[in-house]
Design brief:
2% strand; 322 residues; two-stranded antiparallel ribbon; 13 helices
Length: 322
Amino acid sequence: MSTGKISNDKSYQRQLFIKRYGIVFVMIGMILLLTVITENFLSYNNILNVLSTISINGCIALGMCIVITAGGIDLTVGALLAWGSVVAGLVLKSTHSIPLACVTALVTCAVMGVVTGLMIAQFDLFPFVATLAMQLVIRGLATALSGGASFPVAVSAFTKIGLGKVFGVVPIPALILLVLAVIAYILMHWTKFGRYVYAIGGNRDAAIASGVNVYWVTVWTYVISGIFTGVAALIMTAKINASQPNIGTGYETDAIAACVIGGTSFAGGVSTIPGTVVGIVIIGLIYNGMNLLGVESYWQTVCKGVLIVLAVLLDKAMNKRR
């Protein structure tokens, strides 16, 4: 083997290593930096705060990752957060049944995902346009259903979903996020469905030629995103102890940012669930670190936007090399 070929192989292996694990080192570096420059970062209460924050964004981001991997986008997640909150709150108010409230919220969020997916698969609408339209529809329905007003959760035990701890230590929302991450990992990396999602995102025409049912796989990606967002809605409703039709504004950008930072390609066909989880943690660390340092919230938004741009530029550079 020539020296040049060996050098090229080493360069490729180095690039591959950075692509796979670079984001993990970024997360570790942020943790170390925040530990040094802030006083309370490693305190128990602050760690609980970080876990609570990333659990809601994380559930949404996992569903978003699946949609983007298939070459789509889901801008309905913020509105679905409000819809799930209102539906769960109304069911609790009328029946006082926690299981029924949870099931109803998840099923109705899934139905919204079915409608969105069918619009895209059946009528070949651009995902951005279809989900933007559905975002307005869902937000309007949530407002109409609630009368435009917030109302408290009728069953106090429901709040344990958002505020409870297992063995008095581990927050329940963090465990829910962990369970969803495992489910998403199995779906995307160990099942035929996951292989189809990657195939559609990588080359839709080739997937069709290979016999992949693009129609229903596309619909199912939005159904899964809807269900995962429904879980996030239950956590948030329990956490704030109220149903609110105006929550969730801007949450789609947090989910997209977590996915892109975690290595999900906007071009489709490239993603990892562990990478998305790391992206979720990084977003949470940014918010928490800036709060501890007293940075105004608008600068947090600026920082998030810059991170998305940098992640997309890095993705484009990696695609050119491939």
